[in-house]
Every structure is written in structure tokens, then in C-alpha cells.
Amino acid sequence: MTVKIVTDSVADLPSDVVKDLGIMVIPMLVRFGEKVYRDGIDLTADQFYKKLKQSKILPGTSVPSPGTFAEAYDRLAEDTNQVLAIILSSKLSGTYEVAKQSIGLMKRKCRVDVVDSEWATMAEGFIVMTAAKAAQAGASLDEVIEITRKTIPRVDFLCTFDTLEYLRRGGRIGKAQTFLGSVLRVNPLITLRDGVVEPAGKAHFRAKAIQHLHSFAMSYSCIEGMAVEDTACPDEAETLVEQLSAKFPKEHIYRSKMTPAIGTHTGPGLLLVAILGDKS
Prior knowledge:
single chain; about 280 residues; alpha/beta; four-stranded parallel sheet; 10 helices; 13 strands
């Protein structure tokens, strides 16, 4: 039987990719006061960023319930006996632990394994896509797990922010907190290392920060996947896509507005480039 792949909405996978590769996406929960929304289902990215600008209440996120994962596993177990869940960094969220604990709540018999991607955004998404393609090609669960683990060190992302205040408030700022003491107005650049937010440089002008994103992508000798994502700054994202098309075909660059679960912790003005590939 074909291995089925599960992930969370932080992977930011385009809907057509989810459909074509048969991936099941578990939505994170986004809270505005007493109101709770399923990420990307009850609240789209456009609706979220509009609400973020208008609301005096800062949003928050919650981990999907164990029952949500268990129900998803049981649904997939109707068609397979092998399931792999690839989840965002366990150092950023408790979702990984919930995904593991949920296996014990299943009603059907099925082997379910859970892998910590150590990433988020489309860096996580590329890992999930690679696993799903291997599964569709007939790889066994153990083979898909091996491919997944080999892909984890082959993805990376770099992003720039208008402000780190949302990350600070959400407790996800990691080592990037070193930027907070700066008296000067800077555009920080961050990434993830070993699943934790880490500073990757800074620029005193937005244009210079975006140039760093371009240079990051251009440093790769082999690119298998590229994504440009933004939180409410689409014009800058489209300009960056045009620039990067000199390195990688424009029609193959994934473009997306970041999911509300991510936007809650980044705020507007984030621009990100994610890569699957090799530098040498």
C-alpha cells in the first residue's frame, strides 16, 4: 500500500501541490480573542492580514488537538497501513509531541511514524513534498523516512522583517533576540538552525535586506525547489521573483502569502526565500 503523508499548515504548501501529491494537512489554530479559527480553512491569509491591521487584539496560535491528529490517521488508515507525519520544528511548537501522542488514540491498526522536520514555512514544505513524491513512486515507509531525513539538511531559508516584535511576544525569537537591543533602525535577517530562530545578518535599509535574500539564493549551485513568501508585501515579493528568475525558472518558483499561523508570529512585512538544493 502507498505511504500516506501528513503535515501541518505551517508547511505553507500550495493547495494544488497538496491535492496532486495526496498530502493531508492538519490546520494549526489561530486565536483572535475568544474566536478560534482553523488556519487556512476558517481564516484565509488575506482575511487574516486585513484583520491583523484592524484588530486591537493580538492573535495567538494553538496546537491542533490530539483527537484531530488521531482522526486524520484513522481516515488515512482506511486506505493504507503506513503513514508518515512530517511536522514543524519541535523547538518552535508542541505540535510534534501531539502528533506522536495521538498515535495511541487511534481506533484503526496502522503504522504511523512522526518526523521532526526541524523547519517551518516552505523549507518544511519542500521536505514534505519530497517525501510525498517518493511515496507516490512506491517507496516503503522506511525508505520514505530515510529520504525525509536526507532532505532535512538540504533545505534552508532566509527572511527579513520589518519588526521582530511579534516573534518576541510569541516567545519564538530564539537567538535573534540579540537584535532587540539595537538602538539603530535595522532590517534583521533570520533563519532556523537546528530548529531554532537564529540571526543571519542585518541591513540598515529594506532594499539592502532584500538584496541579501537574492544573494542567498544565488549562492546555490544546484536548486531543486525555490519559494518566495511574504506577509502583506506582495509587490516586493513579485520583484524578487523577477530577479531570481535569472537563476531559477520563474514558472517553477512557488509564490505564497504566508499562512495565518506563521503571520501571527511574524506580523506584516516579512519576506522569505526558501530553497531545496546544494551549494556545492
